[in-house]
Amino acid sequence: MRAHVLDTVGTDLREADVVLGPPKPGEVGVRVAACGVCHTDLHVIKGEVAFPTPCVLGHEISGWVEAIGEGVTGLDVGDRVVCSFIMPCGSCRQCDRGHEDLCETFFAKNRLKGQLYDGSSRLSAADGTPIAMYSMAGLAEHAVVPATAVFRLPDAIPLEQAAVLGCSVFTSYGAVHNVGKVTAGDTVAVVAAGGIGLNIVQMAVAHGASRVIAIDIDDEKLALARRVGATDTVNSRTEDPLEAVRRLTDGHGVDVAFEAFGSAPTVRTAVDVVDDGGRVVLVGIAPVGVEAQFDIARVVRRKIQILGSFGARASVDMPAVLDLVADGRIRLDDLVTDRYAFADAGRAYRDLEERRIRGRAVVTLTG
C-alpha cells in the first residue's frame, strides 16, 4: 500500500510503498478515508517529541472496516468507523482503574517504540525493515488498529470530517468534561484558537458555559472561534489579555482557562486570566524541555488548580462525543477548514507549521 514515511527527523514526508500485515487477535483492519492533520505529528517531524524512525504518522482516522481479527465483536466488514488516537489495552493498571487516557501499555509500546501490543509493528519496508506506527499510522491507505479504539460511526456524521473526532474533538471532550469539569453558567477562556482550541470553544458551549472568551494572535482564527460559539474574542497581539478578560468578567477572571497551544507564554496567559479558586487546564503539547513560569504565591493563596489533560477515555468518552456530534451540538463543518489530497500530505504539515490552516485539516483518500 501507499503511505507517507518520515525517514528521519527534520526531513519531508516521503510517499512510498510499504507492507501492512493483517490484523492480529483483538485488532481491526481499516481502509482509511481521511486522516486528521495534528500539531503533535508536526512535533515528531521536527524532533520536538521523541519517536523512532522510520515511522508513519497520522493518529486520527475515519474509514471502513475491511478485516477483523480473532476475538473482535461488535463490528462488521464494511462498517463506517472512526478511531481514537489513544488505543487502550484494557488490562493494564491504569485501564483497570478506569484511566484509559493513562494506559501504560499505550505509552510504553506505542508512544515509545511505535509498536502495537504484541511488541511489533504491522508496518515494514519491502526489505522487511520495521516501520514504527504513531498510534495507528493513519497517513496510509490502510491501517491496523486495536479494536478498543474503533467505533462505528452514526450515519448522520460525514465520513471525511469524522476523522477529527479521534483526536481533536476527543481531546477537547476530555479537557472540558473530565478535567475542566465545565458546567452550566461557567465562564471559560481558551488560549490559542487552533484545531484543539476551536473544539474546546465548541465543547464548552455544549456543556453550558455562559461566556467563552477565545484568545489568539490571528484575527481569522478568532473570527472562526466566534462562529463556533465564542461569546468574546481577544487578539493578544493588540490587547493585553489579562485586562481584556477582567473587563469581560467584572474584574474577576474566568472559572476555567484552557491552554491549547503548548508554549510558556500561553500557559502563563491561562494562569493569569483565571479567577480565584479557578482551574487551569493544560492541553497543548509542548516540545520536550519547555517549562512555564507563573506566580507561585498567587497560585497557592488563591487556590488555583493547574491540571493536565491528555486525550480522553476511549470506551466511555468516544461514544459521548459521537452522540454530541450526531445531535448537532458539536458541528464539524466549521471545524474542518482545509482538505488535502493524499499526495499533498507533506504540504499539509508545512502549511500547519506556517499557520496557514485556520481550524483543522484532513488528508483525504476518497478522491
From TrEMBL:
Cofactors: Zn(2+)
Residue span, Enoyl reductase (ER) domain: 4-363
Pfam families, sorted: ADH_N (PF08240), ADH_zinc_N (PF00107)
Keywords: Metal-binding, Oxidoreductase, Zinc
Key word Oxidoreductase present: yes
Keyword Oxidoreductase: yes
Residue ranges crossing the lipid bilayer per the database entry: none
Domain of life: Bacteria
Gene3D superfamilies: Medium-chain alcohol dehydrogenases, catalytic domain (3.90.180.10), NAD(P)-binding Rossmann-like Domain (3.40.50.720)
Record family assignment: Belongs to the zinc-containing alcohol dehydrogenase family.
Protein name: Succinate-semialdehyde dehydrogenase
Organism: Tersicoccus solisilvae
